[in-house]
Q: What sequence folds into this?
């Protein structure tokens, strides 16, 4: 055996009580190190390269050379150690992208919205009556394109977005009827989801969504003062009172599925614990997730660096509550933490940050194909349209650009297979280029994932059944 060295970007060590856990970065998997593995890694960390004579001298008669060899072979097979001087490969060489296994189509049914939230990123937003509305014909072509591009899937998702999607219910009702018949004829399932500002909800609509088992998320930013800071009517009035009333009606009547809430954090709004308490404990949303705004066009709404520190500190305090609940076998409904736990549990090895452009495309009101709902109405060139299908060369070039991490800061980052360079739209808003990773809060993200790895390890050690109850069903749902 020549000398060996540690491949530091491929491992991350976390202590949980007296156990030393190894987070294996290439596969996003967690192992508990046995005493020999632990001693070997600590030895590499203190001495750097290790040769056979050094190892023999260190372990002497305490551990058999055979046991040391076997453990080193295991570490080598995990690419945690390799021959000194060898060139480490941290990321698989990107392969040409030929297939786009679309299973989700987002229909941007109306560019109009009845609210005028100050921080809204939509370039094409207008009032509902003046908004560009999607025709039934375009919606049908979108669904047919989905089936043509990706036939034979057992399950498809149709997502409604806007503007405010409830401001164009006629096309939603028509396409739901169409989809239910069309997908049933193919013996495939179809799942509908929708994010709404809730203001247009009424009992009839709730009954309709119940009947068709919609997955519903309400956009709401917290208690009155926080919500009304930005989520206002076209006339400038706060919308908290109406959103609260409608959300309560929804939560009382909706039985098909749990209802989630999406919070947008902007400058001056960072108190995630108070917001969570209000939305989850007081109002009763099953899950609350936070989206910090860091790179919007309107820079006055972007969280400052100090505010981002506060936000992540608050998220970690909520994460601690999540851990305590998980050890008592409860999911406390903190969406960001639950997503991280899901990613870690599934050993998610994300080469890309999300499904946009691969498993998901968003259709604008005129039938143009966009990476996701956030790009509709933007200046970003389209990737085809529903008449002519996906512009595969253009989309492949885009995706391959993000798959190739060489010469980027992500290449050796320890959370590269969880973050994957971050949201394309954030990059686009910040740098005008969706392929550039969004580097603006990497240290905070790494700290957040480290925290998540420690939480995950502790739940795995003390109550692994939590994942069977709360993570596996979510995956199959
Ligand atoms: S964007 Fe930053 S945190 Fe994310 S993978 Fe790249 S370097 Fe790591
Ligand atoms: S690009 Fe960003 S906003 Fe769009 S789906 Fe991906 S993570 Fe979400």
A:
């Amino acid at each position: 055996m020549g000398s060996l060295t540690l491949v530091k970007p491929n491992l991350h060590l976390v202590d949980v009580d007296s156990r030393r856990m190894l987070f294996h970065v290439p596969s996003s998997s967690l192992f508990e190190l046995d005493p020999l593995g632990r001693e070997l890694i600590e030895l590499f960390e203190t001495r750097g390269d290790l040769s056979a004579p050094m190892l023999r001298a260190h372990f002497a008669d305490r551990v058999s050379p055979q046991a040391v060899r076997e453990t080193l072979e295991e570490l080598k097979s995990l690419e945690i150690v390799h021959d000194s001087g060898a060139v480490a490969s941290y990321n698989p060489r990107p392969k040409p992208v030929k297939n786009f296994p679309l299973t989700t189509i987002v229909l941007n049914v109306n560019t109009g919205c009845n609210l005028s939230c100050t921080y809204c990123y939509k370039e094409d937003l207008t009032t509902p009556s003046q908004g560009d509305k999607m025709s039934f014909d375009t919606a049908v072509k979108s669904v047919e394109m989905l089936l043509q591009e990706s036939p034979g899937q057992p399950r498809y998702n149709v997502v409604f977005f806007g503007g405010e999607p409830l401001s164009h219910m006629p096309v939603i009702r028509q396409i739901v009827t169409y989809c239910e018949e069309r997908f049933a004829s193919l013996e495939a399932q179809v799942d509908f989801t929708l994010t709404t500002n809730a203001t247009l909800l009424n009992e009839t609509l709730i009954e309709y969504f119940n009947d068709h088992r919609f997955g519903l998320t309400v956009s709401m930013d917290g208690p009155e003062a926080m919500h009304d800071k930005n989520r206002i009517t076209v006339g400038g009035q706060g919308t908290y009172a109406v959103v609260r009333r409608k959300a309560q009606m929804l939560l009382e009547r909706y039985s098909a599925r749990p209802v989630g809430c999406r919070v947008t954090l902007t400058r001056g709004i960072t108190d995630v614990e108070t917001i969570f308490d209000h939305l989850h404990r007081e109002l009763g949303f099953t899950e609350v997730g936070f989206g910090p705004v860091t790179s919007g066009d309107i820079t006055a709404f972007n969280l400052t660096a100090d505010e981002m520190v506060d936000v992540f500190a608050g998220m970690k305090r909520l994460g601690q509550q999540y851990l305590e609940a998980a050890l008592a076998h409860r999911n406390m409904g903190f969406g960001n933490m639950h997503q991280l736990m899901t990613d870690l549990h599934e050993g998610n090895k994300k080469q890309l940050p999300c499904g946009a452009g691969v498993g998901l495309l968003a259709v604008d009101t005129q039938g143009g194909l966009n990476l996701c709902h956030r790009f509709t109405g933007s200046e970003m060139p389209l990737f085809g349209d529903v008449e002519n299908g996906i512009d595969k060369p253009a989309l492949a070039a885009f995706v391959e650009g993000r798959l190739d991490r060489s010469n980027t800061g992500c290449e050796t980052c320890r959370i590269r297979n969880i973050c994957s360079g971050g949201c394309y739209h954030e990059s686009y808003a910040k740098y005008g280029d969706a392929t550039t990773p969004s580097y603006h809060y990497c240290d905070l993200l790494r700290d957040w994932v480290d925290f998540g790895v420690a939480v995950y390890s502790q739940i795995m050690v003390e109550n692994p059944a939590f994942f069977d109850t709360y993570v596996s069903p979510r995956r199959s749902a």
